[in-house]
């Protein structure tokens, strides 16, 4: 009898925790919700609802690998529970695994034949898979492709007399031009295609000449500012420049990947960063993030935004230029800056990263993939990635990598943090994220880090989100993805 009472009390305590988790979820406190659902699962591991709810919270934190695992577990517990398939299907969609998603939504429809929402989502998923098959069928083999960049001469693009926006006189991008362009962008005016071509093509030339790992030297008494993900939040980017000054030779910046997607001002962000690089290559350094890739841009809005604000040709052009972005930077031989994190094997030297042939779309495994996708974990060793790509690595992995390469610190980005940053692994690893109130709903601060030579101690500055015009995040994303967010 006492055992029965314990079981009942566990069940009712688990339900209380689920309710608390639901409240945390409603308040956009997704990490807290995950912790509470986990506690509920520890008390009652046979309730499919807890796993499906936790899967949804994981999805909100872009932890799609964990969401798929939880959706699968919910299905194992109750194969007739439609939410299990729904949550797993949504996570597959977010990863661009449309065929896997389609199977799950077919199952949802089978279980809920009269649910109009299930029918609508299945139709969207079928459309996405059909589109993918069509694109695969007409795709030209890589070996036969001609680069779009090689076919454009921006000098021949005519500027209409009625155009009143920023203009580049001749071939040199000046600070005056950049300031005028920023002003136009602030007022939601587009840059003429002629100047957009010029900026993107000139940036490509600068990036192509760089190695896959770039060494940055900050002279004594000088500084550099490292920023994390900006994700198309142009007005927050302007705020960074307001707080910390415009990029220049004396005020250089390193933006550590994920410049685009999700936020609906990604075109403005990328043209701003590229224009500063054209103006003065030593004023700005750019690392590739996992969102500087075709597969992500197709899903998370950048591709649609480029079509809307520029043209179809620019979609391919940006994709080509993103393949030229370096994968990592080392500042003064001491600070290793990479978008995602470390690797699935020990003994990776800086020379191995320098030797990566990066001029391609990111592969699904190997050093390049891991540099763009991996995340730190609190426990030692290595574990599977909560994202379903890359891996998780512990403090011991960080320590060994630093020792083997005679480095002091790793700075990475890739993850939203409540305070805009987090210091982990005994102070040897800092995550910096520069998109405050990410996606207009996370309520997080943004941060950037200033390093001053010669001591190179991180000075972290946090900031809050600023208002922006009423264009929602993901406004240009694929319709089917918006339906699931």
Short précis:
Helices cover 46% and strands 12% of the residues. It has helices at 2-26, 30-43, 48-60, 64-77, 82-94, 98-111, 116-138, 175-186, 193-208, 234-244, 266-279, 294-300, 302-309, 312-322, 350-354, 367-373, 395-404, 479-484; strands spanning 213-216, 223-227, 253-255, 284-286, 328-331, 335-338, 375-376, 382-384, 391-393, 409-412, 421-424, 429-432, 446-452, 458-463.
Structure keywords:
485 residues, alpha/beta, 6-stranded mixed β-sheet, 5-stranded mixed β-sheet, 18 helices, 46% helix, 12% strand, globular, disordered N terminus, hydrolase
Strand content: 5-15%
Total DSSP helices:
18
Main beta-sheet annotation: 6 strands, mixed
Are there runs of 5+ residues with pLDDT below 50, and where? 1-5
Radius of gyration: 23 Å
Summing up helix and strand content along with how strands pair, one would put the structural category as alpha/beta
Overall pLDDT confidence: 94
The number of distinct β-strands equals 14
Distance between the termini: 46 Å
Shape: globular
Portion in helices:
40-55%
In the sheet with the most strands, the strands line up as 1-5-6-10-12-11
Subunit structure: Interacts with PHYA and PHYB, mostly when they are phosphorylated and in Pfr forms.
EC number: 3.1.3.16
Subcellular location: Cytoplasm; Endoplasmic reticulum membrane; Nucleus membrane; Nucleus speckle
GO molecular function, one term: metal ion binding
């Amino acid at each position: 009898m006492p055992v029965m009472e314990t079981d009942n009390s566990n069940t009712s305590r688990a339900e209380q925790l689920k309710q608390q988790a639901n409240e945390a979820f409603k308040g956009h406190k997704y990490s807290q919700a995950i912790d509470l659902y986990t506690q509920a699962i520890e008390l009652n591991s046979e309730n499919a609802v807890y796993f499906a709810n936790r899967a949804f919270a994981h999805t909100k934190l872009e932890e799609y690998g964990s969401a798929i695992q939880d959706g699968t577990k919910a299905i194992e517990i109750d194969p007739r529970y439609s939410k299990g398939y729904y949550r797993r299907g949504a996570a597959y969609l977010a990863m661009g695994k449309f065929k896997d998603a389609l199977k799950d939504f077919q199952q949802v429809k089978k279980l809920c034949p009269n649910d109009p929402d299930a029918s609508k989502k299945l139709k969207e998923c079928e459309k996405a898979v059909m589109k993918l098959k069509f694109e695969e069928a007409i795709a030209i083999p890589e070996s036969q492709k001609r680069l779009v960049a090689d076919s454009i001469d921006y000098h021949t693009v005519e500027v209409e007399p009625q155009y009143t926006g920023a203009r580049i006189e001749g071939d040199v991008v000046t600070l005056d031009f950049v300031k005028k362009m920023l002003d136009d962008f602030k007022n939601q005016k587009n840059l003429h295609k002629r100047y957009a071509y010029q900026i993107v093509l000139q940036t490509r030339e600068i990036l192509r000449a760089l190695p896959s790992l770039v060494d940055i030297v900050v002279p004594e008494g000088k500084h550099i500012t490292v920023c994390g993900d900006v994700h198309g939040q142009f007005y927050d980017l302007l705020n960074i420049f307001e707080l910390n000054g415009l990029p220049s030779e004396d005020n250089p910046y390193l933006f550590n990947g994920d410049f685009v997607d999700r936020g609906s001002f990604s075109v403005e962000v990328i043209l701003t960063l590229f224009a500063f690089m054209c103006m003065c290559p030593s004023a700005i350094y750019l690392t590739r993030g996992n969102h500087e890739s075709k597969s992500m841009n197709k899903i998370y809005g950048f591709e649609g935004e480029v079509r809307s604000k520029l043209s179809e040709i620019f979609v391919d052009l940006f994709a080509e230029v993103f393949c030229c972005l370096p994968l990592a930077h080392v500042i003064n031989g001491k600070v290793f800056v990479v978008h995602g994190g470390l690797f699935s094997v020990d003994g990776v030297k800086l020379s191995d990263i320098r030797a990566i042939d990066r001029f391609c779309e990111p592969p699904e495994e190997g050093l390049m993939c891991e540099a763009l996708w991996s995340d730190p974990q609190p426990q030692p060793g290595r574990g599977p990635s909560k994202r379903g790509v890359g891996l998780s690595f512990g403090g011991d992995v960080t320590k060994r990598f630093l020792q083997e390469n005679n480095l002091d610190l790793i700075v990475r980005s890739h993850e939203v943090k409540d305070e805009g940053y987090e210091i982990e692994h005994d102070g040897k690893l800092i995550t910096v994220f520069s998109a405050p109130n990410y996606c207009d709903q996370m309520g997080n601060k943004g941060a950037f880090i200033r390093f001053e030579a010669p001591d190179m101690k991180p000075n972290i500055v946090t900031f809050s989100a600023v208002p922006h015009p009423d264009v929602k995040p993901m406004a240009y994303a694929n319709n089917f993805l918006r339906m699931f967010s």
